[in-house]
Amino acid sequence: MDEMEEQETRAERVQEAQGRADLHTHTIYSDGALSPEHLVRKAKAAGLAAIAITDHDNVGALTDAVECGQSLGVDVIAGLELSATLGEKDVHILAYLFEPSNARLLEYLEFFRRERLKRAERIVRKLNQINIPLSLDAVLDQAGIGSVGRPHIASALVEGGMTGTYGEAFEKYIGFGAPAYEKKYQVSPEEAVQLVAQAGGLSFFAHPGRSTTEADLLELIRVGLDGIEVIHPSHSPSMQEHYRRLASQYFLLTSGGSDFHGGKKNDNGAFGSYGVPMHVVEEMRRRCFRAPR
Ligand code: AMP
Ligand code: ZN
Ligand code: FE
Ligand code: FE
């Protein structure tokens, strides 16, 4: 082994020793199956050094998760997954390291969750009009304390025997273009990115591999995107390479995670194998221009 190879191996060993972080997970505060404590315990058991909980439009999991993380030695990072509309598309923006008590952010999240509830009501009404006897209560039972979304509607349809499978619920009823499809409240990527920035956080393009184009990415960069989610279960190695190259070309940070929801959806035992080395988290913290959060 020559000197350079030796140095590289040493650097890799140092990185490994610092551990890994899963920067995309969900709990019962959105459409995940686990409580914040349960998720943090699972992260500990999987050997993760850090975890970001990125519930849809909800930061409710953070306090309990941080407390549990402190007792177990898991670094819990403030996170969120916001929805925005780009043309006809629903794009997801991951937010990290914002101030969790930021008033404008909290106000927005509350507003958006109320809008989600109104949309669930509209979807149920449309389903009823096509003789699918789903009740709003059945949907709310699925959602519990979490931000109401189509995943809860799909689960309620399956539970009530109104569709065979979760995927079929989207295909036949609530997916884009299906008869009971309803748009979410429309927020532009610019509004979402600015909301995160004014709360001191960073914005990342979530799972860009999901039918987004380079023009979409450029639009997000134009409005102040900080990074791209490179590692995601839906990204093949060549897609990861593609997004890593784009991140480098446009001077963006990178992130990654499992998008774990638990329960029936994706608890396939792969939790712990999608993530990033801890130096990626350190880079994010440096980009915040503030004391570590
Ligand atoms: P919502 O935020 O309420 O619009 O729900 C969006 C979520 O529903 C996505 O994050 C996916 O988890 C899920 N979803 C959307 N479309 C489909 C689909 N065609 N099949 C399965 N799940 C879907
Ligand atoms: Zn989700
Ligand atoms: Fe998403
Ligand atoms: Fe997600």
Q: Helix amount, in percent?
A: 40-55%
What does the average pLDDT come to? Answer: 93
CA radius of gyration? 19 Å
Question: What's the name of the CATH homologous superfamily?
Answer: Metal-dependent hydrolases
Folded structure, characterized:
The protein is an alpha/beta fold. It has a single domain (20-293), classed as TIM Barrel, CATH 3.20.20.140. Helices cover 47% and strands 15% of the residues. The protein contains twelve helices and eight strands. The chain has helices at residues 3-18, 36-45, 62-72, 103-129, 136-143, 150-159, 166-174, 189-198, 214-222, 237-249, 263-266, 278-287; strands spanning 20-25, 50-53, 75-86, 89-96, 202-205, 227-231, 253-256, 276-277. Strands 7-6-5-4-3-2-1-8 form an eight-stranded mixed beta sheet. The radius of gyration is 19 Å and the shape is globular. The termini are far apart. The mean pLDDT is 93. It binds adenosine monophosphate (AMP), zinc ion (ZN) and fe (iii) ion (FE) (2 copies). One fe (iii) ion (FE) is lined by residues 81, 92, 206-207.
Topology:
Elements lengths: L2 H16 L1 E6 L10 H10 L4 E4 L8 H11 L2 E12 L2 E8 L6 H27 L6 H8 L6 H10 L6 H9 L14 H10 L3 E4 L8 H9 L4 E5 L5 H13 L3 E4 L6 H4 L9 E2 H10 L6
Parallel strand pairs: 1-2, 2-3, 5-6, 6-7
Antiparallel strand pairs: 1-8, 3-4, 4-5
Helix pairs in contact: 2-3, 5-6, 6-7
Concise structural overview:
β2, α3 and β3 (75-86) form a beta-alpha-beta unit.
What are its keywords?
TIM Barrel, 47% helix, binds fe (iii) ion, binds adenosine monophosphate, eight-stranded mixed sheet, alpha/beta
